[in-house]
Amino acid sequence: MSPSVAELLLRRLEREPEAGPGGGLCSLEAAAALGLEHQALVGAVKSLQALGEVIEAEPRVATRWQLSAEGEEAARAGSPEVRLFRALPPDGMPQAQLMELPGARVGFSRAMANKWLRLDKEAPGGPRVFPAVPAVQDAVQDSLRRVQQGDAAGLPERDRTELKRRKLLLEVTLKSYWLRKGSAFSTAVTRQDTELTPDMIATGSWRQRPFKPYNFAAQGLPPECGHLHPLLKVRTQLRQIFLEMGFSEMPTHSFVESAFWNFDALFQPQQHPARDQHDTFFLQDPAEALELPPGYMGRVKKVHSQGGYGSQGYRSEWRVADARRTLLRTHTTACSARLLQRLAQQASFTPGRWFSIERVFRNEAVDATHLAEFHQVEGVVAERGLALGHLLGVLREFFSKMGITQLRFKPAYNPYTEPSMEVFSYHPGLKRWVEVGNSGVFRPELLLPMGLPEDVSVIAWGLSLERPTMIKYGIKNIRELVGHRVNLQMVYESPLCRLNT
Amino acid sequence: MPTVSVKRDALFEALGRTYTDEEFDELCFEFGLELDEITSEKTIIRKERGDGKAEGASDTVLYKIDVPANRYDLLCLEGLVRGLQVFKERINIPRYRKIMPPKGEGQRLIITEEAAKIRPHAVAAVLRNITFTKERYESFIDLQEKLHQNICRKRALVAIGTHDLDTITGPFTYTAKAPSEIKFKPLNQSQEYTASQLMDLYRTDSHLRHYLHLIENKPLYPIIYDSNGVVLSMPPIINGDHTKIGLNTRNVFIECTGTDITKAKIVLDILVTMFSGYCEKPYSVEAAEVTNSNGKTHIYPELAYRKEKVKPEYINKKIGISETPSNLAKLLTRMCLKSHVTGNGNHIEVEVPPTRPDIIHACDIMEDAAIAYGYNNIQMTIPKMYTIANQLPLNKLTELLRTDLAAAGFTEVLTFALCSQEDIADKLGTDISATKAVKIANPKTAEFQVARTSLLPGLLKTIAANRKMPLPLKLFEISDIVLKDDSTDVGARNYRHLCALYYNKNPGFEIIHGLLDRVMQLLDVRNEENGYVIKAGEGSAFFPGRCAEVIAKGQSIGKFGVLHPDVITKFELTMPCSALEITIEPFV
């Protein structure tokens, strides 16, 4: 087996005196002496360096002047301008013909600049070129030949720059090493292992072997894995919060709802703007609910049109046809209404807490912060004797579990709650209070027709799932979060959802 | 929520003091308003129409204030100032009075049978000896517009007409006529038009065209004349030019026509209470008599004061505070609900003024006490009840499955429940009539035509939007689809589906098959006779011979296989793809 480049280098280095100011050799010279490509020698230097202190290699940078291919040609046969001048007969030549000569384009402009030529534009048969001087010296060729002979340093700086500009001369940077023996110099090289193998473990050979150091700055290999969607990660955490607070999940298993449950049962007047075509998706098929609860519907109609239960009502016509219309639920409060009405059917009232996180639909224009469908988070508590202060207390607990501690409450209007409150939290980034949810105490006109006892209060609040998620994951455009235009890279990279850390 | 825009300096002048923006914002917040934006006419024009157009526009600072949708009494500067001044106890609540003119001198409006068939109700009143200034006049016009847009439901329920009483002579007749028989010079026009011509004229009017549909298809159009045949208005579209009010108008005749008498009365009450402050006898309104088509007469405005008795403990208990009855009465008075303690302190008597039609129940009174007390001053408490929480079994299963599908190397997506008809039919190689899709009546775009009947189109669209991502793409979604169903009260129901998709240079049938096996393993369903069985199937979305049907628990739960090249192409994809879609409801 022929010796490796590293071995050749080490043997060559062995002949050098001990490390010292005078000792050592240049990698370029060593490569030339050993008859190797410099690059191969550099490879050997790097592998020897990896072994530790076997050799010392000090990087050096040298610049060298070298002729380009064009420069070589000019050194051999003369510069383009001189070649052109010499090709020109004393009685001149038509310019068109002259320009056909090899290298004429560069040569002509140079020779013109040197005032070696005269151009007669008026000559019969088209512009004609005449020599303007009897003879010329090829200074360019002389300079290039001096560089070839290794005397680049002897050329004036100005000439070198000019020749470099003409791309006849190149300035090349040479990287080399100054090599010396290292503190652990030896000509016997042991190969380093990269990885531990089963064989090494079995034989115990790992004990004797040196191992190649790892590059800890390198990137790891990403694991092949699936990912959960960030919005649904937040949903999981919010479900968890509700469950921790003793809230049961309410049934929400129908996107299709009747206007009755979505609006009328909630004491939302039939002329309310939310019931406009612009805000709600009404259905063409099925166009009408097949069944509305008979006795209860009568009580709802009465409380709207005539009042009752201590209320003046809206004193406006109430049409069953409007209540029968089907739509895509605009809020999960429709589900709360169904739940409360079922609760009222129990022989004796039992208090409860419920939540839902579900899809709702609004016939709105879609933009960076609005979609036609989003997830509503809703919490409901029904109990005898609940006060507004209880709602405040529950909201404080809920939002603090979400990591939102600075809260304040603004009076608001909502057709189905009274009192109604908007929940604001201080956003340290935006330096202002932002709305984070809506809440209230359900109106008696909603609860009493259902048959709930008079002393039962129901407090409720809602927020969207998308907004806290966008804030949590720093997403500016909702369309990159929800729907098919999602950015899958964002899904791949989204961190865990930890809300109150 | 309506937004009222008021000039800041005029507002502060009326409030008798100035505020910093922050202080005013704070006051609004406390009172249940929201200082939405601080701007100027110039900024608004610049934003809407560009820099060049804003030159010369006013720099006066405007406050845009969001007002709760049921507080019609706060829709103008006059009302806002009155509400805030009473709230801050700087003025007393004004008492609005109805003045009956001497017999035979009052204004009368007669509703004919023809009008009753089209737009049956009308109410009227007179503001006598009013003094307008430019600001007051603009506010008067603005308030009418705000009322039209909100409680009047874009004039469908009520339309307001205000007229210079000195240009006309009563009694007035509210009738209805064929459009060709109506001819008058409408507001701000220089010539007369017939009603039919007016419809054409206003078809391109950016403002009025929105109201034409309210009467357009009726045989007769509503119209109000004075005793000399002068047209006051053609409700709900336009007033006549003849009766136009201006800065010098002294006596204003107000008529409100509509389809909802309760709201017409409210609108009239609001308009006269807000502006009677500028009358010679402040807060006094001259009554008018309206004769219905059945001959019955009514006096308007109603300006009714209603007395409500509320127990102090009701208010305290519902809010969670313990204030004395007299304190509660004070709190309510600050909300324009003049209150005092009666009996032995057992009751608070509350007077609900005509400006507060939003007070329809004791709970509305309780809320006002809470606002005056300050929501942020109420002690927070936690309900003492004990509850045991339960998850919905279907959602619990969904949560468990999603985690394990991600663990199986698939990435979760979340697609829209609404899509185009094409997505669930043509693109999947089937006809819409073959689906039991729920159809939307009023979609704004094709993207919202139907509720999805399958999760597959959403997943395919997700891949189409993420073509730059490295392959393979392995996606899943567990969510609801919707089908029509006559056995439910609403005629439709949701089904929870699991859909997964593998997209790569090779179809990867075995990968999707492996995923199904894994799902069944997770659900503890064995691949045997009573567990789940896979047999050759067919489906329009699948490549023939590459579709399998999954039978589990004795029923078909869905299909999987290699998608049909036509489906792949129609979803703008280029690679082979295999997919699985099953319902998970039998496993709950």
Notes on the structure:
The complex is a heterodimer of chains A (501) and B (588). Chain A is an alpha+beta fold and 501 residues long. Chain A is built from 19 helices and 16 strands. Chain A has a seven-stranded mixed beta sheet with strand order 7-11-12-16-15-14-13, with helices on both faces. A three-stranded antiparallel beta sheet of chain A has the order 1-6-2. In chain A, strands 3-5-4 form a three-stranded antiparallel beta sheet. In chain A, helix 2 (27-34) packs across helix 3, helix 4 packs across helix 8 and helix 5 (80-87) packs across helix 7. Chain A is elongated and about 120 Å long. Chain B has 588 residues and is of the alpha+beta class. Chain B contains 16 helices and 29 strands. In chain B, strands 4, 5, 6, 7, 8, 11, 12, 13, 14, 15 and 16 form an eleven-stranded mixed beta sheet that branches. In chain B, strands 20-24-25-29-28-27-26 form a seven-stranded mixed beta sheet, with helices on both faces. In chain B, a hairpin with a 5-residue loop joins strand 11 (221-225) and strand 12 (231-234). In chain B, helix 9 (312-319) packs across helix 11 (362-373) and helix 10 crosses helix 11 (362-373). At the A-B interface, helix 11, strand 7, strand 8, strand 9 and strand 11 of A face helix 9, helix 11, helix 12, strand 20 and strand 22 of B.
The total of helices of chain B stands at 16
Taking the alpha carbons of the first and last residues of chain A, their distance comes to 64 Å
Helix content of chain A: 25-40%
Radius of gyration of chain A: 44 Å
Q: Report the major sheet of chain B.
A: 11 strands, mixed
Q: What integer is the average pLDDT of chain B?
A: 93
What is the gist of this entry?
The complex is a heterodimer of chains A (501) and B (588). Chain A has 501 residues and is of the alpha+beta class. Chain A has helices spanning 5-14, 27-34, 38-49, 69-77, 80-87, 95-98, 104-113, 139-148, 157-165, 198-203, 230-244, 259-262, 294-305, 320-324, 333-344, 388-401, 444-447, 466-473, 488-493, and strands at residues 25-26, 55-67, 93-94, 117-120, 128-131, 169-181, 248-249, 256-258, 283-285, 326-328, 352-361, 373-384, 407-411, 417-427, 432-442, 456-464.
